[in-house]
Design a protein that fits this description.
The complex is a heterodimer of chains A (285) and B (258). Chain A is 34% helix and 24% strand. Chain A is α/β, with parallel strands linked by helices and 285 residues long. Classes of the chains: A alpha/beta (285), B alpha/beta (258).
Chain lengths: 285, 258
């Protein structure tokens, strides 16, 4: 399998007045035409990993890496202008909460067609048709109405579908989804994942799925990277997540309450400070 | 209405609505629940199904309601008296929003005691912090100096400090990481065992509810679809289709669906 994206030795640092915070500490991984999940607790650096691929880390954040290779180009060496061509058209990103990621004063249709017209020189009417078609593809039953709606007129699930439509309309090769369903109800969550699953499969895209939900990732993705303290401490096939060997992964899995196996008390995680200094696992395939 | 002796909460035909420009909007329709003393009762459902509104109605935060509500065998009227709040306390979902950012932990914990004119504040605050597994070193900190899990512990301490008998828990762990969630859930079950508290827990997470509760009510579109024991959830024999679909959804994504 050819890799769409290879990241080698990625560091993200934030300089503060007194010290330097290292959010991501030298991780390496690759993404082919597959679904790779990144799991970890808050503060483990998973979102920063996703953002740094698109160079979306703001000052005082600093990205350093041996290479972030996309189709033979090192994204780190591109100018900001060229980078803008990559964002959306080649690699795009779905954020967690549609409420904060859509422009509240622009109609949904206009926002989606803008994303298309930025990367394709087409007339407004063609972009409009394309948008309506895309809205249909994310299973919105009345695209015409949603096209003319403002974000606040949509429910959370609808908003997230609009976001997915917006991110997929320039036809990217890689989609980074940062907690795309955490703000949604479980039943809605499943439908969004089904849509995502189908689109990724049909288009042969690579999906980087960032989430804190272990069960969800193990059932949805092909491969899982487990992050702790800015490092990848374990990587495994998603189906084998429950046979994970690292004590951190085990601890996380055991601290989940389960419907089938009731326990009197939940196991809590005993953090070993040594985990922070373990070497990062190389997840390049 | 006379409710039996051991009932902690008895709701009958409860309707809650909000007045809007387009007329009343019903958030809860015809809900009847009884919760025995010392029991944990769970409410599950999607957002907008009215589960949090029930908690608000009990505490008096939703002014428009009809039907009857009784807590600790006292029928509730339009207003709640001081004594009510020594029996019933609530823990909110978001520990980042439910603590006053410019009050220290000490002030936040002693305020309810002052309101209730309870003496011995110093000792009680100290004890309350100990009960939720935080040392006295946390006493003069501000919320921004605490992690999410620690804040939720403070919120629980605040609810317990006047010896409440009924805790209303509104998604107490959904803003927390799973490892911290486990700690908070353990803390809640320990406290319950110690003090014989009654819990009314609202969550969208079936696994959390089934871990904590003895009985469950599933809500959909402002109504209770089904009430059942946790056992039947475990054996996966829910009566309504909606519960079954919730149960399926909580098991994660099935690739065969596609």
């Amino acid at each position: 399998m050819t890799n769409l994206l290879t990241v080698e030795d990625l560091w993200v640092r934030f300089k503060t007045r007194t010290s330097t915070v290292e959010a991501v500490r030298g991780i390496s991984f690759s993404l082919g035409r597959e679904r790779v999940g990144i799991v970890g607790e808050s503060g483990s650096g998973k979102s920063m990993t996703g953002r740094s691929i698109l160079r979306l880390v703001q000052y005082p954040g600093e990205i350093k890496a041996k290479r972030i290779d996309y189709n033979g180009t090192n994204l780190l060496h591109l100018s900001e202008k060229k980078m803008r061509k990559i964002r959306g058209h080649h690699i795009s990103m779905v954020m967690q909460d549609p409420k904060y990621s859509l422009n509240p004063v622009i109609k949904v249709g206009a926002q989606i067609s803008e994303a298309y017209r930025l990367h394709h020189k087409v007339s407004k009417s063609i972009a409009r048709q394309k948008t309506l078609h895309m809205l249909e593809e994310v299973q919105i039953s009345d695209p015409e109405r949603v096209f003319h709606a403002y974000p606040h007129e949509l429910s959370g699930g609808m908003g997230q579908r609009v976001m997915i439509a917006m991110m997929l309309i320039p036809d990217p090769k890689i989609l980074i989804a940062d907690e795309p369903t955490s703000a949604l109800d479980v039943t809605v969550q499943l439908r969004i994942l089904e849509i995502l699953d189908k689109l990724v499969k049909d288009r042969g895209m690579g999906l980087l799925f960032i989430s804190h939900d272990l069960n969800l990732v193990s059932s949805f993705c092909d491969r899982v990277l487990i992050m702790y303290g800015g490092r990848i401490i374990e990587t495994c096939d998603a189906a084998n997540l429950h046979q994970a060997t690292h004590p951190y992964t085990k601890g996380l899995l055991n601290s989940l309450p389960s419907i089938e196996h009731p326990q009197e008390r939940l196991q809590t995680l005993n953090r070993n400070p040594a985990w922070l200094n373990e070497n990062s696992v190389n997840a390049i395939k | 209405m006379q409710s039996s002796k051991s009932n902690m909460v008895a709701l009958e035909n409860l309707d809650v609505w909000f007045d809007t420009e387009q007329g009343p909007f019903h958030a809860v329709k015809d809900v009847s629940i009884t919760i025995k003393e010392g029991e944990s009762f769970g409410l599950v459902g999607e957002s907008g199904s009215g589960k949090s509104t029930i908690l608000k109605a009990i505490t008096g935060l939703a002014p428009k309601w009809s039907g009857s509500m009784a807590v600790n065998n006292q029928l509730l009227g339009a207003k709640r008296d001081q004594k009510f709040y020594t029996t019933v306390q609530m823990v909110f979902q978001d520990p980042y929003a439910s603590l006053h950012p410019r009050h220290t932990v000490d002030r936040c914990l002693s305020e309810p005691l002052k309101l209730q004119k309870i003496r011995d504040i110093d000792h009680r605050v100290e004890q309350a912090l100990k009960d939720v597994g935080l040392g006295s070193s946390f006493r003069f900190r501000y919320p921004h100096q605490l992690s999410g899990g620690q804040r939720q512990r403070i919120a629980i301490a605040r609810a317990l400090i006047q010896n409440a008998k009924l805790l209303l828990l509104d998604e107490p762990t959904s803003a927390l990481d799973v490892s911290v969630q486990a700690e908070i859930l353990n803390l809640l079950s320990d406290i319950k065992k110690e003090r014989g508290l009654t819990y009314l827990l609202v969550s969208h997470d079936l696994a959390v509810i089934s871990h904590m509760c003895d009985r469950i009510a599933v809500m959909q579109q402002c109504k209770i679809v089904e009430t059942m024991g946790t056992e039947s959830l475990r054996t996966a024999t829910p009566a309504s289709d909606y519960t079954a679909s919730l149960l399926k959804a909580s098991q994660g994504f099935k690739k065969t669906v596609s």
